[in-house]
Amino acid sequence: MLLLQLLVNGIVTGSALGVMAVSFALIYATTRVFHVAHAGVYTLGGYLAWSLVGHGVPEVLALLGAMAGCVALGSLIQVALYAPLARRGAAQLVVLIASLGALAVIQNVIAAVYSPDILQFSSAWAGHVFALAGGLRLSGAQLATLGLDFAAFAGVLWFAHRTLLGKRIRAVAANPFLAEITRLEPRRVHVYVMAIASALVCLPGVLGPLDYGLQPYGGVTPLLTATIAMIAGGIGSLAGAFFVAVAIVVLQNLSLLVMPGEWSIGVTFAIFVVFMLFRPRGLFASG
Predict the structure, then answer these.
(1) pLDDT tens across 197-212, in order?
(2) What is the CATH number of the domain that holds 238?
(3) In a domain, 283, yes or no
């Protein structure tokens, strides 16, 4: 019973981190920017939704409004920060430092506006616990997370392979130079990608805090897991990023059966370090 509950809880949390990993992988594969400020966009989504719900906006509309705010912030970062640095030929380390600076600004502005204390959503349905088959117990927030995150992942895969814009994004990611000379407008595509990924990461940014609350500096640890999932899954593989993120969290949860919780994260990441020594290109990398 405990084993099954830990397994399902891991899949639920892993699906949220999987969506974050997919959004981060989409940005990195296309722009080659290590978008650390993505953690700030993730965090902002939850606070925007919390504010809108607090002002009486229906929860679905609050989620959509939060996504719109994240799209605006992500696009602004691309246009006002990354694009000028790219035009000036800035080194990747400089871009990384700039992204870290943007993350610090976002986090501190959130803390100044909302306070650094933990804030809780007041949604009654989110905390309601449902008894499922096999003795499983999941909250409304967990069920919503599981359904919406898997749906978002499936939607991204469909978008990337079945739409003209998705194919254009993949072409830019595969060969930026060829995309430039064939007038695919990579710089504009980068803005599109940042907007899409920012809307995508808002989903776990809102659904996750329904369970554990909002914190201004709470996006860094999920981003670390998402980054590891992207690398271990194979850079450029959206499916690899998602399923490796789920595997990481499931492994962390199941490790609680044999070790204290404070050891689980370290041991899990150690396993993936060893894995990367034998397959540095990632599990789902082509070639």
Answers:
(1) 999 999 999 999 998 8
(2) 1.10.3470
(3) no
From the CB of residue 142, how many other CB atoms can be counted at a distance below 10 Å? 23
Residue 233 has pLDDT above 80, yes or no: yes
Residue 52 lies in a domain: yes
- Which residues does 15 contact at the CB level (< 8 Å), separation at least 6? 145, 146, 149, 150, 153, 242, 246
In this predicted structure, the answer to whether residue 286 has a pLDDT above a threshold of 60 is no
Total structural domains within the chain: 1
List the one residue out of 151, 142, 113 whose CA is nearest residue 8: 142
- DSSP lists the bridge partners of residue 137 as 131
String of b and e for 155-165 (b: at least 16 CB within 10 Å)? ebeeebeeeee
Beta strand pairing status for 129-131 and 137-139?
antiparallel
Structural domain of residue 141, as residue ranges?
2-278
Check if the beta carbon of residue 232 is closer than 8 Å to that of residue 282.
Answer: yes
CA atoms of 245 and 254, how far apart (whole Å): 14
The answer to the question of residue 76 being in a domain is: yes
φ/ψ of residue 210, rounded to 5: -60, -30
285 falls within a domain: no
**Residue at 275: amino acid letter:** F
Instruction: Write down the pTM of the prediction.
Output: 0.92
Identify which of 145, 279, 153 has the alpha carbon closest to the alpha carbon of residue 209: 145
Tokens of 142: 């967990």
- Residue that the structure tokens 């898997």 belong to: 150
Mean pLDDT rounded to a whole number for the chain: 91
